[in-house]
Amino acid sequence: MPEPSPILTVSSASCRFDVSPPVLTRLISREPRRILRAVENISFTVERGTTFSIVGESGCGKSTLARMVVGLQRPTEGALHFHDIRRADGSLGPPRVQMIFQDPYASLNPRWRVGDVIAEPIRELNLRPDEAAVTERVGDLLEIVGLSRADAERYPHAFSGGQRQRISIARALATEADFLVCDEPTSALDVSVQAQILNLMVRLQREFGLTYLFISHNLSVVRHMSDQLAIMYLGRFVESGPAEAIFQRPRHPYTRLLLDTIPDVERPNRQRKPMSGEVPSPIAPPPGCAFHPRCPIAVSDCSASAPVLQALDERLVACHRPA
Ligand SMILES: Nc1ncnc2c1ncn2[C@@H]1O[C@H](COP(=O)(O)OP(=O)(O)OP(=O)(O)O)[C@@H](O)[C@H]1O
Ligand SMILES: [Mg+2]
User: Fold this and answer.
1) Is the CB–ligand 1 distance for residue 150 below 6 Å?
2) Which of 55, 170, 237, 241 has the smallest set of CB atoms within 10 Å of its CB?
3) String of b and e for 237-255 (b: at least 16 CB within 10 Å)?
4) Nearest to 108 by CA among 156, 142, 63, 50
5) DSSP class of 131
6) Is the CB of 217 within 6 Å of ligand 1?
7) pLDDT digit string (tens) for the chain, length 323 residues
8) Where in the chain are the domains?
């Protein structure tokens, strides 16, 4: 395990989409431009060899943030910076970043044999001297993710969702990636298969010193693998810090509600408050704290001014009335 050192620094990153109707329509109906604030002023640092998890409901901007990190989406404001890292072979350079997607059925080319899916980046990046070495490496990678060397000959349709996600992981490892951005990698899978994939990811992290940015809408999924955790609501972080501290003692009412919706095996009969209301539109977010319409402890201040992230025992919280 390498010494902890920053691998990614995100500084005040925002991503806004112009979702205005066509110019002519707008001029005729005198409508103003409509700007959707998908990600708003987010800052964080990911340490090498650790897992930084981001959790929030659908539409809160998780995938947009992930796309910015892998360079598929440019920030409208702010900056993302990858720090040079020293690899086992002694070389110093920017980390190799790969993304693992949610849908293992859509992310693998159905016409390619699995062996070619995994071999492509190895050939592309000239990571092995000849075809024999490529084939050897593909076989090794299949075994590393818990499949067999013979699986290289088969096509993606022959595999289950969980096995396909293993193939996606093998392909990411084939690039000799240092940093994996995992956008809901297990949410399309059954619970038992989810657990197997999460265990595999934890093992690979330990073995290869991988860094993860792990995205989920489900706090219980990230519970056992996160070092740092950020809770996102309508494009902003509302609470972020060491995962253990947040799970032990959530401070933001939204975090508390998310935790309340997780079944507790030790207290199966406890009262669980369902989360009320829907996530408002990021085009016209509520004034003040965007969470106030759904917040069980909101007061008049909460609709008057937006709370900023402030340090509160070990973590940052954006709330006028933190617990
Ligand atoms: N290219 C785009 N153009 C316009 N709006 C977009 C674009 N991409 C995302 N959005 C909007 O940005 C907001 C955040 O979307 P995003 O996909 O990042 O959310 P998410 O947290 O990943 O949601 P989910 O859990 O459903 O995957 C949504 O309101 C979405 O409609
Ligand atoms: Mg998403």
Assistant:
1) no
2) 241
3) bbbbbebebbbeebbbbbb
4) 156
5) H
6) yes
7) 556 799 999 999 999 999 988 888 888 888 888 999 999 999 999 999 999 999 999 999 999 999 999 999 999 999 999 999 998 889 999 999 999 988 877 888 999 999 999 999 999 999 999 999 999 999 999 999 999 999 999 999 999 999 999 999 999 999 999 999 999 988 888 888 999 999 999 999 999 999 999 999 999 999 989 999 999 999 999 999 999 999 999 999 999 999 987 766 556 566 656 667 788 889 989 999 999 999 999 999 999 999 999 999 899 999 999 98
8) 6-47+60-94+227-317
